[in-house]
Amino acid sequence: MSDLTIGAIYMFLFFFGTIIGSFLNVVILRSEKDQEIVRTPSHCDYCGAKLRIWENIPLFSYIFLRGRCSHCKKKISILNPASEFFVGILFVLVFWRFLQIPFFNSAFVNCDIFQICANFLPLALWLIYVALLFLISIYDIRNLVVLDGFLMVGFFVSLVGEGLLFLINKYQSIAFFDFYHNWLGSASFFFPAIPGIFSNILGLIIGFMFIKIIVWFTKGRAMGDGDPYIAGFIGFILGTPAVFAFLFLSFIIGGIACFVLMSTGKKKFKQYVAFGPYLALGGLLTFLYGEAIFQAYFNLMLIK
Predict the structure, then answer these.
(1) 201 φ, ψ to 5°?
(2) Cα–Cα–Cα angle for 145, 148, 153, nearest 5°?
(3) What three-state secondary structure class fits 111?
(4) CB-CB contact of 116 with 107 (8 Å)
(5) For 172, what's the count of Cα atoms within 13 Å in the CB-facing half-sphere?
(6) How far is CA 259 from CA 150, 246, 267, 270, in A?
(7) How far apart are CA 130 and CA 91, in angstroms?
(8) What pLDDT digit, counting tens, does each position of 276-286 carry?
(9) Is the dihedral of CA 124, 127, 133, 136 positive or negative?
(10) What is the tens place of the pLDDT at every residue in 161-217?
(11) Quick one: which of 32, 27, 229 has its CA closest to 134?
(12) Can you tell me the mean pLDDT for 57-67?
């Protein structure tokens, strides 16, 4: 792909991400209030006034309205534009990560329509994955609970999507797929290679059981009942051996965050802290920068 094409895709994905971020924000707020998500028209949370089209444009409406409802003049939650912007950035980062995978661009050079569609399928899946992880994380932070519905969507999409990729690669060999799931790159050299969907299944089992054992031993005091399912979902989409890196990073990030929260007095010892966001962040960092992080770690430990 040319630089112009790549730039255009970056711009499209950012604006598309802001739209998805706006929708996810609606899902979060209406799920909290047990409201109909799709059929209920967009409205002000304070006065209930229906939003006009120009009041419902991601980011731009918030800036144009100066952060206030045009009817009651109440402040619009900063969560709205923050969600839109953050998901837009996430979508851009997902595409950037796929550009780093060998042979992702080859289909476009050869103008092979089948391979172009096949290469974009995992990209589309990961856009859905990061959107779901964002949704799960924000809801967990706000409510200290993980909704089963969010996880069910994640497992359904990932099972169908990854299974389809496995079948495509089985009957039509695609060079790009040989590097897909190798999120640790050269840093995974001491792990045995696990082919296709079996890598996903093993990742699910490891992620789920590792957190579930902690829940069992601590009787739910260290983590919630939803955390093993989040870890299983992330383990499935990352595969093996990336699941090990994801768990390692999640606990490092979670430990640092808890230390900071307790040091600043925002949380007390034995007070529950949502761990889902740290699992999501660990998974996202493994996907985006897993190879660089662990190559630096191995170099630090003098393993070359």
Answers:
(1) -60, -45
(2) 130
(3) coil
(4) yes
(5) 9
(6) 29, 20, 9, 12
(7) 8
(8) 899 999 999 99
(9) negative
(10) 998 888 887 777 776 666 777 777 776 666 766 777 888 999 999 999 999 999 898
(11) 27
(12) 82
Q: Show the tokens assigned to 132.
A: 């779901």
Mean pLDDT value across the chain: 84
Q: Which residue(s) pair with 231 in the sheet?
A: none
Cα gap 157→153, rounded to integer Å: 6
Q: Is 245 helix (H, G, I), strand (E, B) or coil?
A: helix
pTM, two decimals, is 0.90
How many Å apart are CA 140 and CA 12, to the nearest integer?
A: 29
Contact 206, 240 (CB under 8 A): yes
Measured N-to-C along each axis, helices 148-171 and 227-238 cross at an angle, to the nearest 10 degrees, of 20
- Structure-token pair, residue 244: 């090990």
Amino acid at 175: A
CA distances from 53 to 50, 85, 93, 179, 256 (A): 10, 19, 29, 43, 43
What single DSSP character describes residue 219?
Answer: T
